[in-house]
Amino acid sequence: MIASPPPTDFHPHFRGIYLTKQRELAWEYAQIARRVADGSVVPSGILVVAVPLTLLESVGDVVGEDWKDYVWACRRPSPENQIPRHLAYLEEFSWLQSPLAFLGPDVLAKLKDSPELKGHRLRNGEAAHQIFLQKSSMFCELSDNCKGKVWIEEVTFGDR
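Above: the chain's sequence. Below: its structure in token form.
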């Protein structure tokens, strides 16, 4: 899990909570987290959460051009750059599942339009996927239903 400051792939103005089922991507998230404190290296780990399947009943898959349009609108926020109307249906879901852009602001600024977005690939060539916790009510449900189902796996630099 990583808490990402805005703008994120799925929200232009609010911090996002992102999870993944891919250990390799979780390792990359942990490497970001360990460098986040003023550029200093801090201890980090992989937070493993056993999420009950009942909490995953409201997941929206965002793929293809819809994914590119959504990420573009969120990561390049402006008054005229709103979430496209054809994607408004995604607001009903508690979670959004999608590829991961994994682009810094400097790289994103060089792109001209959403078709240029590409999904991040892991070292093994597999496409990276993220799960975005979209509804604050679901965060409360996670807190209530995952007590005792959370642990931290320590990550060291040599884990790769």
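Residues 30 and 45 are 6 Å apart (CA to CA).
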